């Protein structure tokens, strides 16, 4: 009588399936990337650093600036420029604060209106972008050398900031500056408005903390506290 080989066939089929499973499972793991020094990058960890706060306590004076609604359109309006009275550049020796505050920006816009009748108006800003730290592990290709962990810190790719000064009545952009995107990554900015007019000042950004100071001249005989230019830590 001939013996059946059916059990042996099933065992062989199961072994083949197990081997194929192991092969395909190992294929899902990408091989380590190598850098120019011949070491393999095998893993990274990401850690966001804490955005530094202002060295001076945050103070906001609403006696001068009036909270306002941001202009509805994000782009500059077209048409003929608005008419303003431009004062000749005059360098004053004394200025007073009309606004000082520390803003933590997270995809938001803060706006204020101000009727500038005694220019110039100086807007000074210190920008603290969020920093990202990565610990990168490089595996040595040589047995006689240890693995290396390198810490790299850089500006968050989602960090940006913009200040826009508009004519309050027409919405036309009078001046603008910022950090990242279409602007430089300098962390100290300054805008000087030398024309009288009603202005809308907008601060917009994400993943940044900014210290903002706005000053106007303190003329002789006027009451007010003298303020110094805003100095950003190096």
Mind explaining what this structure looks like?
With 234 residues, the chain is mainly beta. It contains one helix and 13 strands, in the order αβββββββββββββ. The strands form two sheets. Strands 3, 4, 5, 6, 9, 10, 11, 12 and 13 form a nine-stranded antiparallel sheet that branches.
Short description:
The protein has 234 residues and is mainly beta. The chain has one domain (33-227): Jelly Rolls (Sandwich).
Present the secondary structure layout.
Blueprint lengths: L5 H21 L6 E2 L5 E9 L17 E3 L16 E2 L8 E22 L4 E9 L1 E9 L8 E8 L4 E8 L5 E7 L8 E6 L1 E23 L8 E2 L7
Antiparallel strand pairs: 1-2, 2-7, 3-5, 4-12, 5-12, 5-13, 6-11, 6-12, 7-8, 9-10, 9-12
- Report strand %: over 45%
Q: What oligomeric state do these chains adopt?
A: single chain
What's the CATH C level?
A: Mainly Beta
Radius of gyration (Å): 30 Å
Structural domains: how many? 1
Which architecture per CATH? Sandwich
Uncertain regions spanning at least 5 consecutive residues = 25-52, 54-59, 75-87
Count of DSSP helices? 1
Distance from first to last alpha carbon: 94 Å
For this entry, give a set of tags.
single chain, 234 residues, Jelly Rolls, four-stranded antiparallel beta sheet, 1 helix, 13 strands, elongated
């Amino acid at each position: 009588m001939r013996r059946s080989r059916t059990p042996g066939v099933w065992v062989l089929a199961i072994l083949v399936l197990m081997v194929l499973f192991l092969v395909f499972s190992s294929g899902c793991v990408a091989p380590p990337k190598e850098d120019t020094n011949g070491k393999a990058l095998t893993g990274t960890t990401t850690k966001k650093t804490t955005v530094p706060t202002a060295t001076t306590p945050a103070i906001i004076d609403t006696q001068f600036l009036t909270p306002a609604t941001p202009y509805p359109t994000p782009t500059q309006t077209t048409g003929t420029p608005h008419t303003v009275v431009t004062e000749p550049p005059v360098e004053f020796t004394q200025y007073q604060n009309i606004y000082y505050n520390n803003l933590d920006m997270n995809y938001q816009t803060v706006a204020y209106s101000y009727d500038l009748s005694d220019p110039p108006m100086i807007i000074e800003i210190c920008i603290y972008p969020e920093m990202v730290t990565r610990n990168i592990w490089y595996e040595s290709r040589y047995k006689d050398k240890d693995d290396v962990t390198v810490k790299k810190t850089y500006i968050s790719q989602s960090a940006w900031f913009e200040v826009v000064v508009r004519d309050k009545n027409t919405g036309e952009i009078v001046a603008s500056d910022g950090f990242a995107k279409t602007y430089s990554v300098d962390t100290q900015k300054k805008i000087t408005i030398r024309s009288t007019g009603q202005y809308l000042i907008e601060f917009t950004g994400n993943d940044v903390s900014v210290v903002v100071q706005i000053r106007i001249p303190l003329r002789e005989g006027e009451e007010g506290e003298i303020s110094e230019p805003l100095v950003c830590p190096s």
